[in-house]
Amino acid sequence: MLKKLFLLILLLTPMNSFADTINAKVLELQNGWDHISFEIKNNRQQKKAIRDLSTLAINYSNQYPDSAEIKAWAGIIISTEAGFYRLNVVKALKTATLAKDILEEALLLDPNVINGGVYSSLGLLYNEVPGSPIGFGDKDLAKSFLTKALKISPNGMISNFFNGQYYFQKKEYSAALQYFKKAKQGSFQDNRELAKKGTIKEIAQWITKTNKKMN
Questions:
Q1: d(C-alpha 86, C-alpha 94), whole Å
Q2: 31 Cβ partners below 8 Å, 6+ apart?
Q3: pLDDT tens, 8-64?
Q4: pTM score of the predicted model
């Protein structure tokens, strides 16, 4: 009996160790993104930091190809980097396309990863990137992804926040405002107080912008 138990422990230990390694990498990427997004205030420093984090995320994505969470965070980080290249359309599109591809890989591994956050991120990408013939942007696909995110996380802060941005771009300000208000009270991932507070602050700014459009 003891021999069988010892063998079981030996078999499970490498699996547990690998899972711990994956979790540590995910946490490293997540905390890095939170820090860059909400603690670094200098734009130039932000740009360098997100570029370095993107490189690390790509390495982890290649190193752990079966981890949906790592790929999800890699896609989020790279899509954030793309936002820093608005004055360089070619580089912005190349970076955004890489983010899209990695996010889609995450979906294939686990459609529900990070509580529908991949659907939200893809929806935002398809909404913000220019459409054909310049880029891959597609408003219909954006809406489809954002709707799927809401089905997974109907009361989520991010899913509602990104839907609000979609309707704001469509100039449907009443609908946008409803989503923003729901987002402000929405649920957020545990143990990420920095990101939660920063996101609530951003939502409040969008609510102000929307109210101005409606008045």
A1: 12
A2: none
A3: 554 555 555 767 789 999 999 999 999 999 999 999 999 999 999 999 999 999 999
A4: 0.90
The 10s digit of each residue's pLDDT in 58-113 is 999 999 999 999 999 999 999 999 999 988 989 999 999 999 999 999 999 999 99
Distance CA 146, CA 134 (A): 22
What is d(CA 182, CA 77) in angstroms, rounded to the nearest whole number? 25
The angle at the Cα of 79, spanning 87 to 103, to the nearest 5 degrees, equals: 150
Largest Cα–Cα separation, the chain:
75
List 131's β-bridge partners, or say none.
Answer: 137
Backbone angles phi, psi at 78, to 5 degrees: -70, -35
pLDDT at 86: 82
Rounded to whole angstroms, how far apart are CA atoms 65 and 58? 10
Among residues 211, 157, 159, 166, the alpha carbon closest in space to that of 184 is found at: 157
Q: Which two tokens stand for residue 158?
A: 């991010």
What tokens appear for 77 in the block?
Answer: 């980080």
* Helix-then-strand count for the chain, H and E: 9, 0
The tokens for 197 are: 């507070």
Q: Return d(Cα 133, Cα 36) in angstroms, integer.
A: 33
Question: Residue 67: how many CA atoms within 13 Å on its side-chain side?
Answer: 25
